Amino acid sequence: MGAETLSEFTHRRLNALGIRPRKGLGQNFLIDQKIIDRIIEAADLKESETVVEVGPGIGALTRSLVQTGAKVKAFEIDEILADSLPEALGNPANLEVIKKNILECDIAGYLAETPYKVVANLPYYITSPIIRLFLENAKKPTEMVIMVQHEVAQTIMAKPGDMSLLALGVQMYGNVSLVTKVSHGCFYPAPKVDSAVIKIVPYEKEVLSSGDSAKFFVLARAGFSMARKQILNPLSHSLDMPKDDIRPILEAAKIDPTRRAETLSIDEWLELFSHFKGVLK
User: Fold this and answer.
1) Residue 88's CATH number
2) Predicted pLDDT of residue 21
């Protein structure tokens, strides 16, 4: 008998757990091993490394992560899934399942002793909070290889002209690249939308200090608070400052007041922040 395929593994686990996938709950399970292999290749894991997986679920990705020999720390909020995972994978010595909501965890406390990478298939509704959790953490990963909805991936990788608060929030912390697009047909049951695997590599040196970061995003949120409006208007409205006070700040930063927030590059946002820094609360 040949090795168990990912599709066979998935159906065996679903049957054992008595799970009938519900599209309405976003229960779409990856059954294409080629996509898993691309994720593993992009992560380039070594036996000496630690990898964090968020929401291993039934273990489709976890199965391949443990085979790399890396130390796998899998955070799973569902106790039934968490308790059944080690046995389903043959109780590998390099797997630690942590039964906690990672958004409520002290990441630095769990990973203080070592550098680590993040490899995960992220549910769409926690994509942004999870990315922020790691990139804004004092103990950042050396890289993140994550699967997200294709539309979200496009948003994150956007260039000036189509920037968003999410794109700015990720690109301020690291370089983002596309690993592969993932067709909806690679899942069971097939969702209506495609996905994508992206890789985020945090900068070795932080662009902003932790003290400045909070103020910077006060400015950024203000700038993006009114979609497709000239940046003068949302800054004035959200920061509760007269336009006549904001206009000279924009001009000093060499930002045309009639431009929209989505057209600004990261360097322009940083220049704008340097001029606003003294007046932000």
Assistant:
1) 3.40.50.150
2) 77
